[in-house]
Write a structure and sequence with these properties.
Length: about 525
């Protein structure tokens, strides 16, 4: 007797699993449409179009039987696009601009900021807000005791804008002002109506324009700049014209002085020319690059060597308590780096660190770990080797287990010793499978920002460079300092360096992988 069973993991039409998947799909579509709406509200039309196009492609793939196989590829492609391609493209795009702490805004936004500036002559009036249904009135009193009342205006509904036309004030006596209909708004009501009051302009009998300056006061304000039909700005104080310098990213007066805020603009290859053409940038860049390559190479070599030696020792059959040793040697990898690195920073402290206390007691010396370039680099290598060797040890232990025991038995019959076994059997058989992982380790060490940021912060700094850079700075930390520290905040230049770092790491990885591939083919 035979029975047939159908696979239970396939969602049939009408089953509860199919209904759940349909609901989840609809929720995902609604979420993406909501994201598109938010992007459009933020005036990010290009991003909204891209997200909408990706949604259309995803829906087409899931509805078309011909594109069924692409359903399994789509999540990976989206992950690559979102987490790799888009960040790289955005970084590369910024590197061709002047984006920095003084050029944060787009041209249109920077222009709006200037047009929104007002000049005050210090003339002000206290005010009350009278509320009667949806009608509002303002009752004002100047410093000379004169009273003024605004015409009635309606409160905006559902977040609509305040009255756009200026309101002309009517002069009244104190008794007439107090008799103005409506209930006086308290502080809470004034706070609730702050958007309405901020958008109101009042025209006094003297022709001055008054705008809200505080919760209880309107002051005389007039625009500093107005935009001319040809796009230039006119300074209302001296009637001079301002022009936009698109190359430098500033609005400039006739005398050439710049106004802040600056705006983002395209500068072409200027950031890359600055790196390689400006001596004050080229010199520290080359020094940091040389140390970065040395650090990545030496650390990969040291962690691999130490991890392999310990892995061989852990596979020694005569060793008692191997499980306890393995656990102890694995602990540096189990503790998060942001905990271990500050501990090492305290241990290497030049005045109170335990390492210098022991060296002082034994040899009478207190090395300057953070002030001497050679010692600082040695300390960085030691700490990162300690943090990285468990990973190599685990990999090597797994690969050693895959080596046939017959090879070691034949080697023992031939009279070979442990060193011969290591260099003739273990190392050659491990080198090929672990080579791609060594390349990945090199790339990871090339961009090891966490270690430098938590241990030395790049110290000791170079004293002969204008650009902030230190003896232990890697390209990643050097870029970080230019972008966010030491008064730099030059994001575009940092993005240019990041793009170069990516090209260098990608090029080194490709070269190494091809070399290993050629070696494998030759064998």
């Amino acid at each position: 007797m035979s029975t047939t069973t159908s696979p239970t993991h396939v969602a049939r039409p009408g089953s509860w699993l199919a209904r759940v998947l349909i609901v989840l799909g609809l929720l995902a579509v609604l979420a993406v449409l909501g994201l598109v709406t938010l992007l459009l509200a933020a005036h990010q039309t290009a991003w909204a179009a891209g997200v909408l196009a990706a949604l259309c492609v995803a829906v087409l793939i899931h509805l078309s039987p011909r594109l069924y196989a692409w359903r399994y590829v789509l999540p990976g492609l989206l992950a690559v696009a979102v987490f790799i391609v888009l960040p790289l493209a955005y970084t590369l795009a910024i590197s061709f601009t002047n984006y920095s702490s003084t050029h944060l805004l787009a041209f249109e936004r920077a222009t709006q900021v200037l047009l929104a500036r007002y000049d005050s002559e210090g003339l002000g009036m206290a005010f009350e807000l009278r509320r009667e249904g949806d009608q509002r009135r303002l009752v004002l009193q100047d410093d000379q005791g004169q009273h003024f009342v605004s015409p009635p205006f309606k409160a905006p509904v559902l977040g609509t804008a305040a009255p756009t036309e200026p309101l002309t004030l009517l002069r009244q006596t104190a008794e007439e002002a107090r008799a103005t209909p409506g209930q006086v708004a308290g502080p809470r009501e004034l706070v609730a109506e702050r958007d309405l009051l901020a958008g109101i302009a009042l025209i006094g009998a003297d022709g001055r324009t008054y705008r809200q300056a505080s919760l209880h006061r309107f002051i005389d304000q007039k625009r500093l700049y107005v935009q001319e039909p040809d796009g230039r700005l006119r300074d209302m104080r001296d009637n001079s014209l301002l022009s936009a310098d698109m190359d430098a990213g500033f609005w400039r007066r006739a005398d050439g002085s710049a106004l802040e805020p600056g705006f983002r603009s395209s500068v072409g290859w200027d950031n890359y020319r600055r790196i390689f053409g400006d001596e004050k940038f080229l010199q520290p860049f080359l020094r940091v690059f040389a140390w970065t390559v040395s650090f990545a190479g030496l650390n990969t070599l040291l962690t691999f060597a130490l991890g392999l030696v310990l892995a061989v020792a852990m596979n020694w059959d005569a060793l008692k308590g191997r499980s306890a040793y393995r656990l102890g040697l694995f602990l540096p990898y189990a503790v998060p780096a942001f905990i271990s690195i500050p501990v090492f920073r305290g241990l290497f402290n030049e005045n109170l660190g335990e390492i210098n206390l022991v060296l002082d007691m034994l040899f009478g010396v207190r090395p300057g770990w953070f002030s001497d370039a050679t010692l600082a680099r040695s300390m960085v290598l030691v700490v990162n080797t300690w943090l990285g060797y468990p990973y190599m040890m685990i990999l090597a232990m797994g690969l050693i287990k895959a080596i046939p025991e017959e090879l070691y038995e034949a080697s023992a019959l031939a009279g070979a010793g442990p060193l011969t076994n290591f260099f003739r059997i273990t190392l050659p058989l491990i080198a090929r499978p672990i080579a791609p992982l060594l390349v990945a380790s090199f790339a990871a060490n090339f961009n090891n920002l966490t270690l430098i940021a938590l241990l030395t912060e790049g110290a000791p700094d170079f004293l002969d460079t204008d650009v902030p850079a230190g003896a232990t700075d890697l390209l990643a930390s050097y870029t970080y300092r230019i972008a966010f520290q030491d008064g730099g905040q030059n994001y575009a230049l940092a993005c240019a360096i990041s793009s170069l770092v990516f090209l260098i790491v990608a090029g080194l990885a490709i070269v190494n992988l091809r070399l290993f591939k050629q070696k494998d083919a030759a064998r």
